[in-house]
Design a protein that fits this description.
9-stranded mixed β-sheet; ligase activity; Metallo-depent_PP-like; Ligase-associated DNA damage response endonuclease PdeM; nuclease; ligase; alpha/beta
């Protein structure tokens, strides 16, 4: 499911799969995939779950099957770190790329990409520095203001805390749509999150139960 909104005159779909689809450009925007994060932690001796890269790629495949998509743009942090170059992670990425050989892929280099190094050349991902200007938007990793464009960025891994009765609460990934800067949730399944709030100039859309809805 998705929530459709108009931002800077452009229709954008906020997807329950923690990504944005831009129908006019047939473009999928993904922030903070952090492929290979679990393997990077395991290389340090940390007991973390396996299969996160496969799960993330399966979610991406479901989006590509459901949407007419000519391009995927990663808003930084494609790989988590040097340990993400493990053979299992790269093998999964190469197999996925072979299935999607005609798809244009662009990575806007983020802080983790600078540590991890660019993806292997055979993945055929165009790597660029931020900002990447498209239409009214500045596509970035860091949520820094741009002098003329509305910024779509990642990096923060926004989540919103829904509060119930008493001490009950639930933290959910979210989109934060601002007047000049908007944040995408982390696409990766093993990424954590930073709590954000809504305000008069910042709307919040939470993700849960395979749907997206605005926080009133």
């Amino acid at each position: 499911m998705h929530y459709s909104l108009t931002l800077e005159g452009e229709e954008l779909w906020l997807l329950a799969e923690k990504a944005i689809y831009w129908p006019a450009r047939q473009c999928l925007l993904i922030a903070d995939a952090h492929f290979g994060k679990a393997s990077a932690y395991r290389s340090l001796g940390q007991p973390v779950p396996q299969g996160t890269t496969t799960d993330n790629l399966q979610r991406l495949d479901r989006l590509l099957s459901a949407l007419p998509c000519a391009q995927v743009i990663f808003l930084g942090d494609f790989l988590h770190g040097p340990g993400s170059h493990a053979s299992g992670t790269l093998s999964a990425l190469r197999t996925w790329r072979e299935r999607n050989h005609a798809l244009n892929l662009t990575l806007i280099r983020g802080n983790h990409d600078k540590r991890a190094g660019d993806p292997p050349a055979d993945l055929r991902i165009e790597v660029v520095a931020e900002p990447l200007l498209m239409g009214p938007f500045a596509l970035q990793h860091e949520p820094d203001a741009h002098p003329s464009q509305h910024v779509l960025a990642g990096h923060v891994h926004p989540v919103y805390r829904l509060r119930g009765k008493g001490r009950q609460s639930l933290r959910l990934p979210c989109f934060q749509i601002g007047s000049k800067i908007s944040l995408l949730p982390a696409f990766g399944a093993f990424t954590g999150g930073y709590s954000v709030e809504k305000s008069d100039d910042r709307r919040v859309f939470v993700i849960g139960d395979q749907d997206v809805w605005p926080v009133c």
